[in-house]
Hints:
Elements lengths: L1 H19 L3 H6 L11 H12 L5 E3 L5 E7 L3 E7 L2 E9 L5 E10 L3 E9 L4 E2 L11 H4 L9 H10 L5 E5 L5 E6 L7 H7 L7 E6 L2 E4 L1
Amino acid sequence: MMKKLSALICLSFICLVSLQAQDAKTCFKNMPDSLSPILTSVNRADFIDFLDSKMKAEVTNSFGSKSEMTELSSDYAHVKMTPQSTWQMKLLSVNDSTKVICTISTVCAPACDSHINFYTTDWKELPAAPYLSGLPVLTDFIVEAPDSVDIYEYQEACRKADMLLMKADLSSKDATLTFTFTTLDYMEKEAADKLKPFIRRPITYVWKEEKFILL
């Protein structure tokens, strides 16, 4: 009887530790330094301590500049790494007992562009394809020209958008991923102004059936 009880207690403890390891605070704290060269393990721990103490979570990073954690919840974290860059993390459920980590690194110079990665909760990198049903392409952001528009001016405006730049954002409130077209910010103002009327609103993906799919 005692052996069974001990086994049950051990199993319960293992389950509890496993669940704790799948919250954003623990995952962020345990992130390998190799994945966050600008923040040390001490920086990451300080972020959490500051927020727990209801203080501004600002630290001096490895580059000698300031980084600030602006949000931390059970499944989401947002860090302003530098004045030109941000980092986001979201925990997403794959099944009742397993989660994956999605991170987004964004740099704005001046147009913002983002890079998305997926990891296990112990930070082993995963291929993105099983968890994201394709990234948007340039034509996803540009609407067809209405009959009232000069087709040659429209085509010329589209040609000036010769590079796809987009900013990705994870929601802190739900399991959605949004892409915003930022190519306009790198184009010359005159060309950008001509193309702007034909740009769609941000494109949103929702986490469903263990992957992000177009809403």
